[in-house]
Structures are given as structure tokens and as C-alpha cells.
């Protein structure tokens, strides 16, 4: 029985990794026929660039400024900063199977929020959460929930005053099921805050108030690097160059880990990436060796920063706003806002193991888009395509592949993870997430029992 199980997993692994190219999705702020931005796909394996959607303004939105996410149904979801009937931005869906674009929601009522910022965040309940920079009762931004099953939108929170002003990054879903985010200003010192939102209780809590002299200010998107511990960057600081910090939600302790200087880069615009080697990676938009920004590596143990790439404009691209992502081949991929052969930005690759930087694509402009802005590239999970409606019998897990946290579908009651040898290695009950960061890389099976007594078995990949 075990031999059959191992053989089955081997076949699945070969088919999964041999047949699938690494395809990355991203957006540009401008360019395309209407100069309102595009949604594109880039195939790493053969260097093919494909324009998927041209944004046209009032009809389907314009100026997408954040990344996109893949929903449990395999479809792609994103937001534009402006466009739509009221020019306040839209939430959209793109079907990779049918190539159909759908505008799901228009930010038409400024009281509900306008000018959405960053990317949507998927929670285990199947709903999306996000923020707007403006709108709401004080016109200082909102926190919202969007249900893709019903296309219903709900404003959860108005930002103002001591509760923060103008959210400045995408939301981070913690392993405790709560949302964590930042604002660029507001708080008791008007220098930004870190906040927590409990989806279950709807309680909003200010967790830390930024103080530029000690912490830095204008914080960006947070990432959770271990349960309850979040890492992030501040765009500015007492010397105006920015900082790297960590915040422990378990102890409510904030600590600045690093302060940027002109010679090593300044003004990080987005959060960090945790690589599969435990190191943190990010970019700065300015300074460094050629004054065009840098790609850096940060060791969270020693608090030492290493400059990996000094962007040089034509050969590499310059002014990266977005942080890199790590694809299933272990390499980093990212974009620059400007520079490259046409001065319209680039897609790049960085091999952590060899230290080699490769410019993969130069944006042209009208034909393909220009100036990729905020938001990491997304590697498409093609095993999720064509799953149809989200039901228990076909609900994929998220994210899969995963480097650590695995979010269980809503209604999950018990879960058991089985090793490639057919051995039960973990059994949990009444949890929303499972942390498999300590597991060796490989393919596992997970059996989930729902509160309806229905059972499903899925393959999961630990990167």
C-alpha cells in the first residue's frame, strides 16, 4: 500500500513540475493602447510576454497600482487606483481559462472609500480584504471586505486621527486569523501606525504608533515571518532614508533592526520577502551605487544587510517600487518602474545561489504597457484553474505550494497530513491555519474533515 502511495506521489510530482512553465502575472501603471495600464503574463521558461487586459478608464478601470492574487476558484483578482464610472477605482476579476475580464465592483460612493491601495488579501472564509487611501467619513481611507461569491462590498472601518490616516500597504493575514496593516500617517504622533483587525469580532486595535526618531515613519506592507512576528520597512526615518523593523504581536514589542543610508540605498517602497533560505529580500527606489535603487538581502539573525544589485538604468532598469517574489525554481523575480532599453521599466531575475542578475524583459509602452508600480509578481498555480464554484469537493487550499502557512477552507473541522511514505505526521482539530514551515520540501497529502462530515483529500507542495 505504501509503495503504491509513493508511486502515485512520484507520478504527480513529475507531471506537476515537468509540464508546467513558470508563468508570472503583473500589472503596469501606464501604457497599453489607452495609456491606462495593462495586466500581463510573463513566461519565465521561454521569455514570452502576453498582454492579457488593457485598462480603458471609465469602462474597466485604470492605473492598477498593486499586485494581483489568485482566488480559491483559480481566477485572478485585482484593483485599479482610478477609473470606473466615478474614477475612484474598481475591483476586477480575470479568468485565465476563458480570458474574460469582469469588473466586479466600482468605488463609486466615496463614503465607502476610494482610490484602493495595494493588493487584495484572501482570508480562510473565502472573502477578500483591502484598503483605500481616501474616502470614508473623514476622506482618510477605509478598510473593507469583498465577497467574490456575491460581489458584495462592506466597509469595515474608517481611518482618521489617532486611528491612522491613509493606509500605506496591503493587509497581512496573520496565523491567528487576524489582519495586520499600516497607515502612512495619523496616530498620536501623526507618523503612522501598525494596526490589527479581528475579522471574527470586528475589533480594530492600534498596536504601535510610529516615532520617526526611534522607529522611522511611513510604514509599508507587513509580512509574518513566524507566528505573531511581523517584519516591515519604513519609507522614511530621522535621516529620511528608511528603516527595517520587526513587531511582535505576542509581546507587543516593536524594534528597529536597520537604518538605510545613501550609499546602500534609500526609501524602500514596499515590504519584504522571506526567502526559502530564511533571509529577507527587498528593494529601495533611490540611492545605492548608481543612485537608482538597490536589491538587498537582510539577515534577520545578525541584522546585517547586503546589497545584491545596484540598479544602473539601461542595463538593469531603475527605481524599483515593488519587492521581489520567489518562484518555484527558487529564483527571485521583480520589476523596475523605469530604466531599461526603452526607459519604461523592466522584469528581472536574480539567482540567490549564484548571485547572477538577469534583465528578462524591457517594457515598450503602447504595445505592452509601461512603468510597473507597486505589487509583487504572482506565479500562477495552474492546478487551480477550471475548478468552477468554490465547493468543498473542489476547494483548493491556499497557498499551494506553500513555504509555511496553509489556510484551511471555511468549515474545516479536522485535518491530517500524511507523509510520502504513507505515515500520519500531523493531526489538528478546530484550527484555521497549519504551519508546515518545519517540514522538509516535498509533496504531501492532507485529509480534511468538514463540520458537515464531508471529507476531501488534497495534494500539498511544501517549497
List keywords for this structure.
mainly beta, 43% strand, disordered N terminus, 1 helix, 36 strands, 5-stranded antiparallel β-sheet, 463 residues
Strand content: 35-45%
Shape: globular
Total number of strands: 36
The pLDDT mean sits at: 89
Helix content estimate: under 10%
Q: Over all CA atoms, what is the radius of gyration? A: 21 Å
Describe the structure.
The chain is mainly β. The protein has one helix at 2-19; strands at 23-28, 38-43, 48-54, 69-70, 76-80, 90-95, 100-106, 114-122, 128-134, 142-147, 152-158, 165-167, 172-173, 179-185, 193-197, 204-209, 217-219, 223-226, 229-236, 243-248, 253-259, 273-274, 280-284, 294-299, 304-310, 325-326, 332-336, 346-351, 356-362, 378-379, 405-407, 412-418, 424-429, 433-435, 442-450, 455-462. Strands 12, 13, 14, 15 and 16 form a five-stranded antiparallel beta sheet that branches. The radius of gyration is 21 Å and the shape is globular. Mean pLDDT is 89; it is low at 1-19 and 387-391.
Please render the helix and strand layout as text.
Elements lengths: L1 H18 L3 E6 L9 E6 L4 E7 L14 E2 L5 E5 L9 E6 L4 E7 L7 E9 L5 E7 L7 E6 L4 E7 L6 E3 L4 E2 L5 E7 L7 E5 L6 E6 L7 E3 L3 E4 L2 E8 L6 E6 L4 E7 L13 E2 L5 E5 L9 E6 L4 E7 L14 E2 L5 E5 L9 E6 L4 E7 L15 E2 L25 E3 L4 E7 L5 E6 L3 E3 L6 E9 L4 E8 L1
Antiparallel strand pairs: 1-2, 1-30, 2-3, 4-5, 5-6, 6-7, 8-9, 9-10, 10-11, 12-14, 13-14, 14-15, 15-16, 17-19, 18-19, 19-20, 20-21, 22-23, 23-24, 24-25, 26-27, 27-28, 28-29, 31-34, 32-33, 32-35, 35-36
Amino acid at each position: 500500500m505504501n509503495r503504491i502511495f509513493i508511486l502515485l506521489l512520484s507520478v504527480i510530482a513529475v507531471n506537476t513540475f515537468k509540464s508546467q512553465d513558470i508563468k508570472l502575472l503583473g500589472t503596469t501603471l501606464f501604457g497599453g493602447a489607452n495609456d491606462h495600464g495593462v495586466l500581463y503574463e510573463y513566461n519565465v521558461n521561454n521569455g514570452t510576454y502576453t498582454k492579457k487586459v488593457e485598462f480603458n478608464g471609465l469602462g474597466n478601470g485604470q492605473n492598477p497600482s498593486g499586485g494581483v492574487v489568485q482566488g480559491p476558484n483559480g481566477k485572478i483578482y485585482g484593483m485599479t487606483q482610478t477609473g470606473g464610472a466615478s474614477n475612484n477605482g474598481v475591483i476586477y476579476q480575470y479568468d485565465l481559462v476563458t480570458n474574460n475580464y469582469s469588473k466586479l465592483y466600482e468605488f463609486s460612493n466615496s463614503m465607502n472609500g476610494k482610490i484602493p491601495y495595494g493588493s487584495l488579501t484572501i482570508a480562510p472564509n473565502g472573502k477578500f480584504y483591502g484598503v483605500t487611501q481616501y474616502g470614508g467619513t473623514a476622506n482618510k481611507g477605509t478598510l473593507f471586505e469583498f465577497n467574490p461569491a456575491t460581489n458584495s462590498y462592506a466597509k469595515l472601518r474608517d481611518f482618521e486621527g489617532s486611528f491612522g490616516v491613509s493606509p500605506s500597504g496591503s493587509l497581512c493575514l496573520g496565523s491567528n486569523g487576524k489582519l495586520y496593516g499600516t497607515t502612512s500617517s495619523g496616530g498620536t504622533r501623526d507618523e503612522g501606525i501598525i494596526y490589527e483587525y479581528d475579522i471574527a469580532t470586528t475589533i480594530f486595535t492600534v498596536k504601535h504608533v510610529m516615532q520617526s526618531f526611534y522607529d522611522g515613519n511611513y510604514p509599508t506592507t507587513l509580512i509574518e515571518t513566524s507566528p505573531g512576528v511581523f517584519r516591515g520597512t519604513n519609507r522614511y526615518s530621522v535621516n529620511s532614508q528608511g528603516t527595517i523593523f520587526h513587531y511582535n504581536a505576542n509581546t507587543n514589542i516593536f524594534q528597529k533592526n536597520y537604518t538605510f543610508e545613501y550609499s546602500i540605498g534609500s526609501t524602500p517602497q514596499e515590504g519584504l520577502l522571506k526567502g526559502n533560505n530564511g533571509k529577507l529580500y527587498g528593494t529601495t527606489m533611490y540611492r545605492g551605487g548608481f543612485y537608482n535603487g538597490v536589491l538587498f538581502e537582510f539577515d534577520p539573525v545578525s541584522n546585517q544587510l547586503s546589497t545584491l544589485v545596484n540598479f544602473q538604468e539601461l542595463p538593469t532598469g531603475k527605481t524599483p517600487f515593488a519587492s521581489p517574489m520567489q518562484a518555484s525554481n527558487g529564483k527571485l523575480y521583480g520589476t523596475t518602474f523605469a530604466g531599461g532599453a526603452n526607459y519604461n521599466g523592466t522584469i528581472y531575475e536574480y539567482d540567490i545561489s549564484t548571485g547572477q542578475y538577469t534583465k528578462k524583459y524591457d517594457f515598450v509602452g503602447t504595445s505592452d504597457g509601461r512603468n510597473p508600480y507597486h505589487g509583487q509578481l504572482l506565479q500562477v498555480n495552474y492546478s487551480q484553474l477550471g475548478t468552477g464554484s468554490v465547493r468543498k469537493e473542489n476547494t483548493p487550499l491556499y497557498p499551494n505550494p506553500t513555504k509555511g502557512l496553509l489556510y484551511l477552507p471555511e468549515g474545516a473541522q479536522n485535518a491530517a497530513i500524511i507523509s510520502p511514505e504513507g505515515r500520519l505526521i500531523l493531526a489538528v482539530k478546530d484550527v484555521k491555519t497549519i504551519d508546515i514551515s518545519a517540514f522538509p520540501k516535498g509533496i504531501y497529502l492532507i485529509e480534511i474533515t468538514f463540520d458537515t462530515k464531508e471529507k476531501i483529500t488534497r495534494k500539498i507542495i511544501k517549497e
